[in-house]
Design brief:
Largest interface: A-B, 48 and 48 residues
Distance between the termini of chain A: 51 Å
Oligomer: homodimer
Structural class of chain A: mainly alpha
Mean pLDDT of chain A: 90
Number of strands of chain A: 3
Order of helices and strands of chain A: HHEHHEEH
DNA sequence: TCAACATATAACGATATGGCTATATAGTCA
DNA sequence: TGACTATATAGCCATATCGTTATATGTTGA
């Protein structure tokens, strides 16, 4: 064991800057509303590109592009039958991530709401 | 209870598109290497802007700008004494998030490595 | 009040990214 | 093979964001 972080012990606190780039890139995948909506749709069950396009009210190339990123990151998988491509959640831990963010967001918004309500009487 | 998601039950699977924008925005805060490096530094203990600037090898305005985003998101707090501003982690759950991403990333990279090693003999 | 220091903001250029339209690729069926 | 359908890619424009330099704000101490 030397001073540099080794594989398997990925505590973000100890990562090198280059590794943090990878972590940031992974966050960036989830930093787009449309991609989150795609994940949300796939949470209900697998869907093909045309279905997603219709549901999300955007263009087919746009869906394809976003799907590619989600697939490259390993969040989404694909299954092709004939010439239609069915997409599905390949790593459901992505929802743990999203829900952690949701929780933090709720806490944040609640604390803001608190500030607007009865200043000086926090917590009741 | 009506058909729209209500406060407190923030399962990402059920959020409206507008709510997903907020979730995406929160992910976006963590989608920058320099911001992750700031968080990393603050994990060791509070630091002021000048110290961060020196450590991160960038300009002071750049650090200030990123700190602002981290503060607005509630991840980082500030304490001002005299004219120096000390920053610290205000929501340490941000590291849970980062570590979840790290874990997923490691798994992803490991599975890629697997593909390069002995094709056909996966899992051993 | 003035000089000095620490931090914040403004304004800019460079780059990245989202969404579009047009087109290419690839699979199915006749 | 050729028409049709589903998806992917290319190319483009608009916008957002990073990092920089210049400057403003604000705090301390003489």
């Amino acid at each position: 064991m030397n001073r540099k972080a080794r594989s398997g012990n990925g505590k973000v606190e100890t990562l090198q800057p280059e590794a943090l780039e990878l972590v940031a890139a992974r966050f960036r995948i989830l930093a787009e509303p449309l991609r989150l909506r795609i994940l949300q749709q796939l949470h209900e069950g697998e869907k093909n590109v045309s279905e997603l396009t219709a549901i999300l009210q955007t263009t087919q190339p746009n869906v394809s592009k976003h799907l590619r990123l989600l697939q490259d990151a390993g969040f989404v998988g694909r299954r092709q039958t004939g010439n239609t491509v069915y997409c599905f959640i390949a790593d459901s831990s992505v929802f743990d991530l999203c829900n952690l963010v949701c929780t933090g967001l709720e806490a944040r918004l609640a604390s803001h709401a608190e500030l607007l309500r009865s200043p000086g009487r926090r917590g009741r």
